[in-house]
Amino acid sequence: QVQLVESGGGLVQAGGSLRLSCAASGRASSSITKAWFRQAPGKEREFVAAIRRSPEMTYYRDSVNGRFAIFSDDDKDTVFLAMNTLKPEDSGLYFCAESGVWGQQDLVERPSIYSHWGRGTQVTVSS
After folding, report:
1. Residue 29: predicted pLDDT
2. How many whole angstroms separate alpha carbon 113 and alpha carbon 23?
3. How high is the pLDDT of residue 31?
4. HSE of 51, CA atoms in CB hemisphere, 13 A
5. What distance in Å separates the CA atoms of residue 30 and residue 12, rounded to the nearest whole number?
6. pLDDT per residue over 32-56, tens digit each?
C-alpha cells in the first residue's frame, strides 16, 4: 500500500513563503498524476496544483497561478509545492494525492480520481 506523508507546513505571515513536501513509500505506485489539495475549516477540499510525469505537465487553480509551483523528484518519489506571496486565504490543511489518471484540468481537479491520500500538513497565513 502506497503511503504519502506531507511535511513543511507552518505559520507564516502574509507575503511569506513555504515549501511543502510529500514523500511516497510502500510498494511501487502506478501513479501518473501527483497533486496538492487544501481544505479550510467548514469548506470543501479544493484542488491546488497537479503534475504529470513524463512528459511533464502541470495545472494550477487560478488563485495560486504565478505564486505556487509544483515539481517532483522522481528519484526520491517526492513531490513539492513551493508557495510564495502567501495570503490568509491560502490557509488550510494541505493534502497530497496520487492518481493513475490524467486528462483535462476539470478532470484532474476532481478529488474522486485520486486513489492515495496523505494525512495533510497545516498551513496558516496570518494577516
Report:
1. 64
2. 20
3. 82
4. 19
5. 35
6. 899 999 999 999 999 999 999 888 9
